[in-house]
Amino acid sequence: MLFDTHVHLNARQFMEDREETIQRAFDAGVKYMVVVGFDSETIPLAIEIAEQYDTIYAAVGWHPVDAIDMTEDHLKWIEELSAHPKVVAIGEMGLDYHWDKSPKDIQKEVFRKQIQLAKKVQLPIIIHNREATEDIIEILQEEDAQAVGGIMHCYNDSVEYVQACLDMNFYISLGGPVTFKNAPLPKEVAVQVPGDRLLVETDAPFLAPHPNRGKRNEPAYVKLVAEEIADLRGVSLEELSKLTTQNAFSLFKLEL
Length: 256
Description:
It comes from Oceanobacillus jordanicus. Keywords: Hydrolase, Metal-binding. The chain is built from nine helices and eight strands. It has helices at residues 18-27, 42-52, 72-81, 104-121, 133-142, 162-167, 184-192, 222-233, 237-252, and strands at residues 2-7, 30-37, 56-60, 87-96, 125-130, 150-152, 170-174, 198-200. The chain has an eight-stranded parallel β-sheet with strand order 1-2-3-4-5-6-7-8. The chain is globular and about 45 Å long.
C-alpha cells in the first residue's frame, strides 16, 4: 500500500487516459495520492479529481516559475480553496532559478505570501526547489515555516541541507531520480534520512524512474521508487511502503 505524495494527474499529458492511469496505480498497490495544483488551470482540476476518488487528495498553490502571474485575487482564491475537505496542503511553492520567466525578487515575495497563508489556514506546505536551496532555507526560517512543516518535494540536493529541513519540521520526499544510475545524491539521502521523515512520490508526468526514464511518468511507478529506496536502506518493500504511507498520513493529518 503506497502513497504517491506528489503527482500531476491534472496535467494535460493525462487528458486522454486519466481514469486508466489512476486504475493502473490502484492495481499496482498505489492506493493514495496527492494531486498538486500549481496555477489557475491545474488547481480546479486537482480538486475535481480528488472529489471523484476517496483516496486521492489535492494540494493548491502557485508554482515559482509562474510567480509573476500570481495576483492578490489568486492568493485569496487559494485561501478559499484551502477549506475544501480534500485539500491537505498548500503548494507547490518555492523558488526556481533554472528558468527566468519570473524575477527572483517576485518569486521570493510570492513564496513568502504562500507560507504566511499556509500558517493562517494551518496546512503543511509543499516546496519546489530548483537551484535555490540556500535561499529557500533562509526564507523558510525567516517565515517560521516550522509552524506548519511540509515536504521538500523531489529532494535532489546534498545530505548537508537535510538536517536544516528536518529541524523545520519538513519531510524529505524522493522520486524518480533516486533510481538513476548517475544520481548519487538522492541515493545517499535515501539512506541518511530518518525513517519517520521519508516520503515517496512520482512528480508524474515528469521524472519517470528507471527503466522508464524519458517516458511519461505515472503514479503506478512510485513502486519503482519505493523498491529502490527499500534496497538502499536494506528493508523490504512492504516495510518501506508501510513506513512512508504512515508518514504521509501523519503529515496530512489523515486517518488510516
